[in-house]
Amino acid sequence: MSRSFSSSAVANSIRAKVMLYSQYGQPDQVLRCVSHELPSSPKGKEVLLQTIACPINPSDINQIQGVYPSRPELKVQYGQSEPVAVGGNEGLFKVLAVGDQVSGLKEGDWVIPSNVNFGTWRSHVLSEESALMKMEKTISANQAATIAVNPSSAYQMLTLFEELKPGDWFIQNGGNSQVGRSAIQIGKKLGLNSISIVRNRDNLKELVDELTALGATKVITEEENASKEFGKTIAEWTNGKPIKLALNCVGGDNCTNMVRKLGQDGTLVTYGGMSMKPVTIPTTLFIFKNITAKGFWVSANIKRIPGSRENTIKAVQKMMEDGDLVDVKMYENPVSADASEEEVYQAFQKALANSNKGKQLVVFS
């Protein structure tokens, strides 16, 4: 993806576009795009940024719906008379200018937010240097724009809950998800064996081949996951070695059947619930296998484990640089940073409407 950048700065200001909301609800009903002026010459520790790319994540949609635990505060800003917030948590920005007290950044640098609730769905933003994390230009813009959520979640789940060693096994549902694909590749880099559960489909062989090429040891269907007889096949694959870790983003029967495959003292980590059904674990597994069930939320670890965001991103970036973690397929929705409010609005609404068809990225030029 080639990049060119807007020169929308006029004498003393830049006209920025922001996607904001004043009440919670469905994005196509409550989001709107407005313009506001930003000074073209930052002061002190301020940094003027232009957005390069920002993804649409399920958590972004949940924030706008008002059902996500972490949400930006609604407050009067951007020339609005009512309290508003800007959508988006993840994105990549280019530094256009810095204040005279900024020491770690310069014009042309790449940065991402250092914390959550930054509000990335916008063309430009004026930020404090302390709210930014510099990204070296050693990976693609798409990778940098999406590094903080999906691959970082996969890395932390594989390294924080069990002391997995080369040759160990983990199992996951949602094997075709963005986190699932990242877990496959990160697991391979760490020397781990993986079993990934996917939904049956007409092009199953194509998907299995694709995930295997990424590094999946084995890929099975939900029907095979539910089969007691198929458990013998899995035991043959693992040569009797216990499966120590299970990653769950589905819930329901899918999760219950997956947990049955954990070995003694194994750990279930739940980071999503796509089926909208509860996680149900048979009592016998707790008593006789001593299974541990935990939840995972990458945003909470920023405060719970100081330095975890920076250390995780550094480790994931190294894997990307080395070619161990490849670009995931994304659908780009291009728009100019100089575009009208309506054009920016439509770019985001198109990305949101197609978010169930694959990873969507709004790309500014």
UniProtKB/TrEMBL annotation:
<dbReference type="GO" id="GO:0141148">
    <property type="term" value="F:enoyl-[acyl-carrier-protein] reductase (NADPH) activity"/>
</dbReference>
<dbReference type="Pfam" id="PF00107">
    <property type="entry name" value="ADH_zinc_N"/>
</dbReference>
<dbReference type="InterPro" id="IPR011032">
    <property type="entry name" value="GroES-like_sf"/>
</dbReference>
<dbReference type="GO" id="GO:0005739">
    <property type="term" value="C:mitochondrion"/>
</dbReference>
<feature type="domain" description="Enoyl reductase (ER)">
    <location>
        <begin position="25"/>
        <end position="362"/>
    </location>
</feature>
<dbReference type="InterPro" id="IPR036291">
    <property type="entry name" value="NAD(P)-bd_dom_sf"/>
</dbReference>
<keyword id="KW-0560">Oxidoreductase</keyword>
<keyword id="KW-0444">Lipid biosynthesis</keyword>
<dbReference type="InterPro" id="IPR051034">
    <property type="entry name" value="Mito_Enoyl-ACP_Reductase"/>
</dbReference>
<keyword id="KW-0809">Transit peptide</keyword>
<keyword id="KW-0496">Mitochondrion</keyword>
<keyword id="KW-0443">Lipid metabolism</keyword>
<protein>
    <recommendedName>
        <fullName>enoyl-[acyl-carrier-protein] reductase</fullName>
        <ecNumber>1.3.1.104</ecNumber>
    </recommendedName>
</protein>
<dbReference type="Pfam" id="PF08240">
    <property type="entry name" value="ADH_N"/>
</dbReference>
<dbReference type="GO" id="GO:0006633">
    <property type="term" value="P:fatty acid biosynthetic process"/>
</dbReference>
<dbReference type="InterPro" id="IPR020843">
    <property type="entry name" value="ER"/>
</dbReference>
<dbReference type="InterPro" id="IPR013149">
    <property type="entry name" value="ADH-like_C"/>
</dbReference>
<keyword id="KW-0275">Fatty acid biosynthesis</keyword>
<comment type="similarity">
    <text>Belongs to the zinc-containing alcohol dehydrogenase family. Quinone oxidoreductase subfamily.</text>
</comment>
<keyword id="KW-0521">NADP</keyword>
<dbReference type="GO" id="GO:0009060">
    <property type="term" value="P:aerobic respiration"/>
</dbReference>
<keyword id="KW-0276">Fatty acid metabolism</keyword>
<dbReference type="InterPro" id="IPR013154">
    <property type="entry name" value="ADH-like_N"/>
</dbReference>
